[in-house]
Amino acid sequence: MDRLGRNVVDCLNTGYKMRDEGKLLVTYGHDGPWDLDDQVDENRFTMEAWGAQMELRAIQRRNRSATEKTRAAGRPKGKPSYGFQYVRTAMGGKIDHVVPHAHASTVIRTVARRILADPENVTPSSEAARLSRAGEPSPADHLAVMYGKPAGGRPW
Length: 156
Description:
Layout: H1 8-20, H2 39-72, E1 84-88, E2 95-100, H3 102-117, H4 124-133, H5 139-146
Antiparallel strand pairs: 1-2
Helix pairs in contact: 1-2
């Protein structure tokens, strides 16, 4: 049921839309297709949709808690976004703050300016191709080099 929707409204809207269009709604854990004209099936469908919503809220709460705990400990939760870098006041210590990377931030701002100046002719895809042709390291290669690893030569 949680793949049908992550809140009660989405699940019910999908279920009733399928019923109204004469389509069968079959989910794992339910014997046969759902019959939303049957009161028992309708109530069970609603309760399972509510369960999916509660599960989503629990996942969100756990993720939020993990992020807060990680930030409080000064550890990164993932890699820095392209154009930024982590700053540690002590080598191997906690991350103190995030600052723009001198070169990468210039590259990404130039890309943004070019796209905004001529959105008809300059697209994110054309900019990616331009940067690859110019030999500019892709975000993954840039990150690898920043952390002392070899660049893989990946395209933008």
